[in-house]
Amino acid sequence: MYSRLGAISPLDGRYGESVKVLSPYFSEAALMRYRLYIEIEYLIALSNEKEIKELDAFSNNEQAKLRSIYQKFDAVAAERIKELELNTNHDVKAVEYYIQEKTKKSLHPWIHFALTSEDVNNLSYSLMWKHGLDQIYFPELKSVLKGLKKLAKKYKNASMLSLTHGQSATPTTFGKELAVFCIRLERQLSKIKVHRLLGKFGGATGTWSAHLAAYPKVDWVKFTTRFIKSCGLEPNLITTQIESHDSLAESYQQMIRVNSILNDLCKDMWFYISRGILSQKRIKGEVGSSTMPHKINPIQFENAEGNIGIANSLLGYLSEKLPVSRMQRDLTDSTSLRNQGVALAHSYLSLKSISSGLNRITINKLKMNNELNDHWEVLAEAIQTVLRKSGQEDAYEKLKNLTQGQSINSTLIKNFVSDLKIPEKDKETLFSLNPENYTGLSSKLVDLL
Asked: 157 Cβ partners below 8 Å, 6+ apart?
């Protein structure tokens, strides 16, 4: 009996339960079902073409019966197609023969009529990717975005020390820093959602030669345009045997950008936890270390980072490989495309991990405040800017001499401000500042989400 413990791929083994929702879109059986969909819908479209008089238009009942071949597709049907493939050694031809088994003989000549396998495959793979994004990936990405926005608003006033180049810098708020990721992700999400995938359906070398030889009066370009659009894709009318895969590569690269932003988020969260300004909620029974009982490791963000790395490696390879094909076609795209679901699955796993990680974090306000109070030098920026306002040319140098490489506290800062020859109103402003409230528009920026 099959066991996940015996699987070679962790996607099918360790993470099988987490990614099983992707099986209807990217499994071997799913590919068969999508191929069936293309073949059946093409057969119906042919029957509706008036110039093809040898094939009568199907009635509503006949269309429903044909469509049931892919609508009721199950494991038994998948096994049968696999049996046929053992004889044909050709996966698309096996699908054609399977349809023949389900239809009357008079229809057999019209199944896969004038097509090349790539006509069926390119539409199938693009639809698999499109539907996987729409039904599974986008909802999970939106869930992460929703969680980030919730935390950003919750902690929009939670002051924390910034680190630029790893050194103390102008304070911010934790909420504002999360808002940065919200804006970045929203921008990429809007782009990837409107991206349109292309499809070709022009025969052996993209010339419709066989189609035209059989039916020279049919406007095959118009027919193809209508058919591809009915599938939810945009037609690519000038191709070789294969669709050039540029639009798929663009979509993969869009996901790489999303993943890179998420990778940046994971690293930041890891460092915030390491600094102690973020805490993680305890989960009963969970163990952080086999030998150190005190530990609560940031494993969700670490796992996400690892899965993003694998996903982006695959997506990068696919986006570079697929648009390159020798002459009118070689077969390197075939085995490569089968891995697009693997790339999406690792991206999806990273989203699940990030959601889990975000759900268990809380701020350590005491640690945040202590860290801020240890770095009064961050007010040097404000003081020298007010001095510039008063026309003092050496403002920057004065604060540099006071603070660079020095241990600075509130007393030193206040004494320095007291001796400044600036308007009393400006002094009052500077006296009112401390590392905790020197956060500028941070809180209001979160409200722009």
From this structure: 173, 175, 443
